[in-house]
Specification:
The complex is a heterodimer of chains A (1062) and B (138). Chain A has 1062 residues and is of the alpha+beta class. Helix content of chain A is 47%, strand content 24%. In chain A, the strands form 7 sheets. Chain A has a 6-stranded antiparallel sheet, sandwiched between helices. Chain A has a 5-stranded antiparallel sheet with strand order 2-1-5-4-3, with helices on both faces. Chain A has a 5-stranded antiparallel sheet with strand order 7-6-10-9-8, with helices on both faces. Chain B has 138 residues and is α/β, with parallel strands linked by helices. In chain B, helix 3 links the parallel strand 3 and strand 4. Chain B starts with 7 loop residues before the first strand and ends in a 5-residue tail after the last helix. Classes of the chains: A alpha+beta (1062), B alpha/beta (138).
């Protein structure tokens, strides 16, 4: 059957994703085994029926076995060809080509559970894959979409399979019904008569045909064909017959071509004086029926439910013997011990009171009409479960009298909602169909004459027999899009002699569209097709209903996850709600543990949500709109869950709502996730609002602000609305007038540069500004702003700028204070030096007097002084002289840093000056004093002179006796990295001057001491000097931003190194 | 030959010891002149302006750091006065500052001498001064 117009189509483009491919790859490459494992353990938890097939395998084996499938799926996701994969899988399924699993082994629950498990497993890995909120959200959406589509395709396929089966069976039943009818209309049953007296068996021709006898009377021959297993049966039946006079036997025999034939035979044994004289009876070939029933039963068995494979029970009701027999499964369904004798009374104790009447009616009707029947009814099994059973049966009649009923019963509790409705309605509609108008038509091919019955005319909206119909006229009724197909079909039928059966859309004269179910057959004469006959039925309503049911997205989505969405069916008239197992589970109840009414539902709703939920429900029912709600329930064990409930109303013919069908889903986790996402978003917003930084983005072209955080209020006291209203003008108005021109200029320059050169690697440079902004109270605050490009337009031009500003008023003030303090310090330094100068000057005064008067004392009184007196006086004079010198030296040191009069000076000249000054000493010691080509640098000339003088003077002073003193002054340039250890003032280049001598040297362990004021390495008596020389050198070096270091080797020499920035 | 009249040598210094040391230094070198002491600048100026008790000095030995009128101001005054500026002024001060030296010369000092630390040196200095200015000894 081609119902392509009537199913929700899954569009392939719905399976093209943006993030899923990479994510799938991530899973496949890094987490494959765990991903499968998670699903396996989930499947075990849910007791997925499909697992039963793998019962004998260990977990590891299952993982191994299922891995290819998972890999295939993930790869398809990676390459965005899920659509193709799913279609192919469906095809394989329909054509029963699935590896390892038969087509009928898969149930609706399997589909939805597997899909659900897969989705869950995937969700599990999202946090591992990304931490970006947007990507995660996208991915969740895509996975949901994927599941939806996959399930849609799967359910479509499943529906196809089910429908096919349904049709097959109905067809088969019909056929067998026809056969039976046929058999019945064939007036003569095959009959036989066996005259014991004469030993003659006479067999009617029909029977001969049935039994495939070549000639009558050959019982042996007959028996030969009987299946060995049944031979005893026959013999026993015969024996019974002779005893009781009644014969009945059903046995198999080997028919033509080795085919199995089932014969049902009845007879009567006439006795005379206690001895059998004749045996008269009939026999019927019931093979087809048997096979039919067998097949039907078999396919019914295969017709799987959410639970076990064999929820179909068979039953037979032998009317003659008033015996009911049940198969094991039926016992199980009812929960009765297998083998317990069955009676209607017993059955009725299980049947739901509301259905008892109906059941009785149906059976009675069946007995009367002898038509096959089918119906649904509820039972409450032994273990108090409410079950919905689907019973089918047919009546066997002999000569118009029913003698047996047989059929099947199926536990369809799980499958109830959509499918049951579908079938129910289908049956109902089929029944209606059977009662409604079928039009007949015939087409004389040769004469091209079409004859229509009255009903045909009516179907096509015409007055009966109002006009001549031709093939063309007929075709005109066919919907334009289908005409070609229809023509082709007709031609095919004729060509191949096929009977056809299909649906098409007819468009009536008044524009109404109808869906027509058309059946036809070709009649041949002399091997030539001469006529085509058929029926047409207006099945619009039925189709529309199926369409509606199928098209209805909500119900369809519900069907999708039959056993994970809880389904509910609320009969608005009785207030009874039928729940699938999942609904029970969501509420923390045992599945099917109680009868559910609207009050039950209410009792689970969270008290705070109750009013709202009830009013929403009311509204939906009143306004006949689809219902959807989210609310909390408290399960039986006290868990608070968030439920998503959706429902659709079913209206009766008057448009009054009689039922609501829908789904319930536990979305607690989902809601939690959404909540988490929301809190993350809130968190980010909170950060933006609580940070002390002012964050804004504005459009460079329109000057409008697109984002201003709350800091504008907390830091500056302005409302965000003001900024939004006025745009950047708002900012310019509160910028300090002194800073305004510069900032505007800098900003324009930065933007221009950014526009000219968009960064290649996508990272935008950050530009800094500093300016004052007026607080709403009028005071100005300093802000340091970091600006960067927020986004660019598609042509690469700057579009939005992001500014983050920090209030640095305090720092500014602190810096200003610092500078002030520095000034003060400098000043005080200056005064200090002045003070030092004056102080030392005044200190020197009394010392001078000491010196002079001691001097005079010595010169005028020396004859009167004793040796001791001379000695003491000498010491006093000496000490005061030393003191004078020290004070002079101190003074000299103190003025060094005050002198910042740097000038470009040729150091070579300075050197030569100093050499000249020390000429005397140099000659005296016959010293060799040389220098290289010292450069010209900016120094304080007098100080550098002093420096050289001290160093060279020292070298001369500390020369070795036995060696000619050699003093070499050399220089070289250094770069900053070479002087990093000295922490000198910053400069691009440094000058290093080495003054090396070959004097007495010094022990390096004292190197720290020698630069200290007044520290000497030798006693006063050995070498003169206060020990200030090197301290002065250091001070001078420091005044130039440099340093001086020394190294010596005892008795070999010393080197003094001066490093200054230049 | 009649001995020449004694020169007046003005020693302007607020420090008594210094005044005496300088005089002693001269005397010990046999420079017997008339040594007039003045304790501050005002005294000097007053003396020079008003009817001098003593004739104009042959040389003024002027200290810089004096209370009241600073030596520099005195120097300035002296050198700006037509009548007085021909009198040689030798600045004799404890200061060894370059600045004072430069300034003194700028203001018109004839010589700048830092008071030496030793008496011997003082004698040498005064001897030099005498040889230069005490014409009655030649």
């Amino acid at each position: 059957m081609e119902d392509t117009t009537l199913k929700p189509v899954s569009s392939p483009e719905k399976l093209i994703f943006k993030h899923l491919p990479r994510f799938a790859r991530f899973i496949r490459e890094q987490h494959l085994e765990q991903y499968i494992r998670v699903q396996l353990s989930g499947a075990r938890e849910l007791n997925t029926p499909l697992l039963r097939i793998f019962d004998s395998l260990s977990d590891e084996d299952i993982i191994k076995a299922s891995m290819p499938g998972h890999i295939e799926f993930l790869q398809a996701a990676e390459e965005n060809r899920l659509g193709a994969l799913l279609e192919e899988s469906s095809r394989k399924w329909i054509n029963d080509q699935l590896e390892g699993i038969s087509r009928d082994a898969i149930e609706a629950e399997d589909i939805t559970q597997v899909s659900y498990l897969r989705k869950n497993a995937m969700m599990h890995y999202i946090p591992l894959y990304t931490s970006e909120m947007t990507v995660a959200l996208e991915l969740v959406r895509e996975i949901d979409q994927c599941q939806l589509e996959a399930d849609t395709i799967s359910i479509n396929t499943y529906m196809d399979i089910l429908q096919e089966r349904l049709e097959m069976q109905t067809h088969a039943l019909k056929e067998s019904e026809e056969l039976l009818l046929q058999a019945q209309t064939i007036a003569d049953l095959g009959s036989f008569e066996w005259n014991f007296k004469e030993g003659k068996i006479s067999v009617s021709p029909q029977l001969m045909a049935v039994l495939e006898l070549d000639e009558p009377g050959d019982f042996e021959h007959l028996m030969r064909k009987v299946y060995p297993a049944d031979k005893d049966k026959v013999k026993n039946a015969m024996a019974t017959a002779i005893e009781t006079g009644l014969y009945e036997c059903e046995y198999r025999m080997e028919g033509k071509g080795g085919k199995e034939k089932i014969i049902w035979s009845r007879g009567v044994v006439k006795t005379e004086n206690g001895a059998p004289v004749s045996f008269k009876g009939t026999a019927m070939d019931v093979t087809e029926k048997h096979h039919m029933i067998q097949r039907w039963q078999r396919s019914e068995e295969l017709y799987k439910q959410a639970q076990a494979m064999s929820h179909i029970g068979n039953w037979t009701w032998d009317l003659q013997h008033e015996k009911l027999s049940w198969s094991d499964e039926l016992y199980r369904v009812y929960g009765i011990e297998i083998g317990t004798p069955i009676s209607f009374d017993l059955i009725f104790t299980y049947v739901h009171p509301d259905d008892q009447g109906r059941l009785t009616d149906i059976l009675n009707t069946a007995l009367e009409t002898k038509a096959p029947f089918e119906f649904f009814y509820r039972i409450i099994s032994s273990d108090k479960q409410l079950k919905i059973l689907h019973a089918r049966g047919e009546v066997l009649a002999d000569e118009g009298k029913a003698f047996k009923l047989l059929g099947t019963v199926q536990d369809v509790t799980e499958r109830q909602t959509l499918l049951e409705q579908l079938q129910e309605r289908d049956e109902r509609y089929k029944e209606a169909q059977a009662r409604t108008h079928i039009g007949n038509w015939s087409w004389d091919i040769e004469k091209n004459k079409v004859t229509w019955s009255d009903e045909m005319y009516r179907i096509y909206g015409l007055e009966p027999q109002s006009e001549e119909i031709s093939l063309q006229r007929y075709i005109c009724f066919v919907h334009p899009e289908q005409r070609e197909d229809r023509r082709r079909q007709i031609q095919e039928s004729i060509d191949e002699g096929k009977s056809s059966d299909f649906y098409f859309t007819a468009v009536l004269a008044d524009g109404r569209e109808k869906i027509i179910h058309s059946k036809s057959e070709v009649v041949y004469a002399n091997g030539k097709p001469v006529k085509m006959i058929g029926t047409c039925q207006d099945v619009t309503e039925r189709q529309r209903l199926i369409e509606k049911l199928l098209h209805n997205e909500e119900l369809y989505k519900q069907a999708q996850a039959l056993s994970h969405l809880g389904n509910f069916s609320w009969d608005l008239r009785t207030d009874v709600i039928e729940w699938t197992d999942e609904c029970f589970r969501i509420c923390g109840l045992e599945p099917q543990s109680q009868v559910v009414t609207f009050d039950t539902l209410k009792s689970f709703i969270h008290p705070e949500d109750r009013a709202r939920v009830l009013s929403n429900l009311e509204k939906a029912i009143q306004e006949k709109t689809p219902y959807e709600d989210f609310y909390r329930i408290i399960s039986k064990v006290g868990e608070v869950k968030i439920i998503h409930r959706k429902g659709e109303l079913v209206l009766d013919e008057q448009g009054v709502p009689i039922m609501m069908n829908g789904t319930t889903q536990d979305v607690t986790q989902q809601q939690l996730t959404e909540q988490q996402l929301r809190s993350s978003r809130e968190f980010i917003e909170k950060i933006a609002d609580t940070t002390p930084s002012l964050i804004t983005t504005y459009n460079i072209n329109t000057g409008a602000y697109t984002f201003v955080n709350k800091a504008i209020k907390t830091i500056l006291g302005y409302e965000t609305e003001e900024a939004f209203e006025k745009g950047v003008q708002f900012f310019l108005d509160i910028l300090h007038p002194d800073d305004l021109p510069l900032i505007v200029e800098q900003n324009a320059a930065a933007v221009a540069q950014s526009n000219a050169r968009p960064p290649a690697d996508g990272s935008e440079p950050v530009v800094e500004f500093k300016y004052r902004i007026k607080h709403v109270d009028g005071s100005y605050h300093w802000f340091r702003t970091f600006a960067t490009i927020f986004d660019r337009s598609s042509d690469g031009k700057v579009q939005h700028v992001l500014n983050v500003s920090i209030d640095v008023t305090e720092q500014e003030r602190a810096e200003q204070k610092l500078q002030q303090k520095n000034m003060e310090l400098l000043q005080s330094n200056a005064s200090l030096e002045e003070y030092a100068y004056v102080a030392s000057h005044d200190l020197k005064e009394p010392l001078r007097k000491i010196a002079t008067f001691s001097d005079r004392l010595v010169s005028t009184q020396h004859e009167r002084l004793t040796e001791d007196g001379k000695l003491y006086l000498g010491k006093i004079i000496e000490s005061s002289r030393r003191m004078q010198k020290m004070i002079s030296d101190l003074l000299a040191v103190s003025v060094i840093s005050g002198n910042k009069k740097f000038e470009p000076v040729n150091l070579r000249e300075v050197f030569e000056d100093v050499v000249q000054t020390l000429e005397y000493k140099i000659e005296e010691k016959n010293a060799l004093v040389v220098c290289d080509d010292l450069p010209q640098v900016r120094v304080v000339p007098s100080q550098f002179r002093q420096l050289f003088q001290n160093l060279i003077g020292n070298s001369l002073k500390f020369s070795r006796e036995d060696v000619r003193p050699e003093i070499k002054v050399t220089h070289r340039f250094l770069n900053p990295s070479q002087v990093s250890e000295y922490h000198l003032a910053k400069a691009g280049r440094y000058l290093r001057i080495d003054v090396a001598d070959n004097g007495i040297g010094f022990d390096n362990q004292f190197v720290g001491k020698i630069f200290t004021i007044f520290q000497r390495l030798h006693g006063k008596s050995e070498y003169e000097g206060t020990g200030i020389g090197l301290a002065i050198c250091r001070k001078i070096a420091e005044n130039h931003g440099g340093t001086i270091i020394a190294s010596g080797r005892l008795n070999e020499g010393s080197t003094f190194t001066v490093i200054i920035p230049i | 030959m009649k001995p020449a009249l004694k020169h007046s040598v003005f020693i302007v210094d607020d420090d008594e010891d210094d005044r005496e040391s300088i005089r002693d230094a001269f005397l010990e070198n046999k420079h017997h002149q008339e040594y007039i002491f003045m304790g501050n600048g005002e005294q000097l100026i007053a003396h020079l302006h008003n009817a001098p008790k003593h004739p104009n000095p042959v040389v003024i030995l002027l200290d810089l750091n004096m209370p009241g009128k600073d030596g520099k101001d005195v120097l300035k005054e002296l050198k700006n006065n037509l009548a007085l500026r021909s009198i040689p002024v030798i600045v004799m001060t404890t200061s060894s500052s370059e600045r004072d030296r430069m300034l003194s010369y700028e203001l018109g000092a004839n010589c700048f001498v830092t008071k030496p630390d030793s008496y011997e040196e003082l004698k040498e200095v005064t001897d030099a001064i005498a040889r230069l200015w005490f014409v009655n000894e030649f």
